[in-house]
Amino acid sequence: MLPNTPMHHDSQAIYLDHAATTPVRPEVAAAMATCVIEDFGNPSSRHTWGRSARSRLEEARERVAASLGVSAATVHFTRGGTESDNLAVLGRARSVAAATGSAHVVTSSIEHPAVLEAAHQAVREGGTHTVVGFDQGAFDMDALRRVLRERPAVVSCMWVNNETGIVLPIPEIAAECRARGAPLHSDAVQAAGKMPLPAAGIPGDLLTVTGHKICGPKGTGALIVQNRHDLRPLHFGGGQEGGLRPGTEDVAGAVGLAVALELAVAETSTESARLTTLREEIETGLVNSVPGLRVNGRGLPRAPHILSLSIQGADSDTLLAALDTCGIAASGGSACASGSSAMSPSLAVLGFDAASAALRLSFGRLNSRDQVGRIVAAVTSAVERTRALVVS
Fold it and tell me: How many other β-carbons are positioned within 10 Å of the β-carbon of residue 154?
């Protein structure tokens, strides 16, 4: 049995939805349990229990910082990726709007809803929002350069797209933003601990990470604020986290995030190579077995753990149900956008045919090469059954 395989599931079941969430590693659970039992004090209290909890919290902050190659003072704990994205985009927009009367937010067209909806809220509050698109799957750097002349309040471009796995050129985007004095935020939820980060350190000013995508706890995250451009907090009532995230800190959650990130970053080189091989073998098998199947983003830089497919003559919901009945957990795209019938912008930039089924297979610790044959066979069979239902 693979590590962390849920005992209550069929032992033949295969989890292919690591981009949605991941199982908590035993090391993470153990560290959190110790913290919950031994360090229950409020980190803001001055007594022994409070000081002990504060020590645990600051150690977690230092470990997150060391894993990302930043200083501990830049790490601000939040309750997850969505909150971090909101704080970066809307917090920056509100700060600029308070000083100038309006804020201009720039995003790519394929951002997570946590970024796009924050930008939309900035517009509702009197700001403007410019979307930078793609050309044949490549980020439009010329369009970015043009909009940077307007000196936006913040630019937000995700590192790895959560639906398709395509990788944006964040170091190049950061260089352009730096040259124009525009703060860059990047949602690195699908990048940190999944693929090697630049040796020169994290580019840009603001970076989002979360725990549950890297075998850590849900409801944990951090916003890295490298260059302290003014941000307005989203919540009010205390001075915790440098005044950016008031409220009693979740010490156990911070410890869990720190341990998960530390382990993931230490294993990034070997794990990214392993998952790339796994993805490529499954991709090749499916291309050879399923007529009318297209690999979204093929030929573009892609993260190792996400395989996005378009399948002609099939329905996404029916296909996912067919896969689930044979023990395969997968997704039609982003789990955060489930229930939406609108065309995904992330798929649209890759020329996705709206009449096709979208299928995202995402890999991680629960997957191994000995599953490749079963995955290919199960997906092939599910597609055949789904197509037969569409025809009938």
Answer: 30
